[in-house]
Amino acid sequence: MKLESLTIQLRQPFSPLGPDNKYEAKLSVSWNETKMQVALTEDACRRILELAGDEIAAAAQIQISDFVTNALSASQTPAIEGKAEQ
Which of 3, 40, 49, 52 has a beta carbon 3.0–4.6 Å from 44's, enabling a disulfide? Predict the structure, then answer.
């Protein structure tokens, strides 16, 4: 079995966090040619966030920082201008 991803998100992503809109965790796993998504309990989601929340946030911040740096450098690359001579 291979763990493809762990997703933690609000049940209703466009609504604010609250008693009726808590975070949920899902694992995407594959085995042979079969892929499936498994929902974790609220307690498992809470334990994951308590255990690895800081590391997840730090990794996400690094990814965002790298994305912004690369996007800025790509948009600030000067265009090469020149004249064709015959």
Answer: 40
- Does the pTM surpass 0.85? The reply is no
Residues 56, 61, 63, CA angle at the centre, nearest 5°? 95
| C-beta neighbour count of 45 within 10 angstroms | 19
pLDDT digits (tens, 9 = 90+) for 15-55: 998 889 999 999 999 999 899 999 999 899 889 888 888 88
Phi, psi of 20 (to 5 degrees): -95, 0
The SS3 of residue 33 is coil
Q: For 23-43, b where at least 16 C-beta lie within 10 A, e where not — what string? A: ebbeeeeeeeeeeeeeebeee
